[in-house]
Amino acid sequence: MSVPRPLTPAGSCRQEGFTLAEMLVALAGAGLLVGLLIGLLGSQSRFHLRNEDAIQASQIARALADGMGAEIRSAGPGDLLLATRDTVSLRVVVLSAVVCDTVSSGSIDLFAYDSIAANLQSGWRGTAFSEPYSADWVYADGFTPVSSVSAAAETACRAAGADRANRMPTRWFRRTSGWNGGFGTTPVPGSLARVYGRLTYAIRRSGSEAGTVSIRRNGQEFVSPLELGAAFEYRLSSGAIQAGVAPADLSRVREVRLTGTAIGRNGRAAGRRVVYAMSLRN
Fold it and tell me: Is the pTM of this model over 0.70?
């Protein structure tokens, strides 16, 4: 025997699920959340890029101060070879020696007491000497005397007062010749002698970062990027500051200045303005 099913009143049927209005509200809410999330991620990304640029600009400024600044400060006014708005070139000592004895006209014995290994322009060397008790140096760019390790030079230098407890290797004692050809005179015993190379810093357009410049050390990129407009300036003994110095006035330069703005490669942060004043040694 079957039991009759109760009839559902008309108008009371209800379909399970979301209405169109509910779906639109849900989609709008989800879109708002996604937009907020994307905005948050974008803000964090921009903050990261700005922070990265600021750090990089500071690193560029530090490299300029610790690298280029240290080398330029080691030079004296007589060491400058070129001083223009985009290039500064100077002599860098690679070997220092004292004259022990005069062997003959143009030939002397030396004790080389200091030398450095520097990444300088290859093939370019010069020599300078200073008389005893004199602060003035005589330069001969492009000239180096003929030099060879000599036991006789060691004997002469020991006799002249070289410290007998000094165990420097024999190669530091050298007999050199040809001085008359470079200077027209032979340094006397007690004079100081130097062999030097050429170091050049130049501001050039960057080959990798469009619209920027880099600073090159002897042709190799040293730091980058900097904004366009970076330049060298020079303070003279008179106190005047100018963008370039004529060769005849190079000895009057007392300070090399670099002005520019170091920037990051992301382009997301304001650059760091740098004005470095690098005083030459007296």
Answer: yes
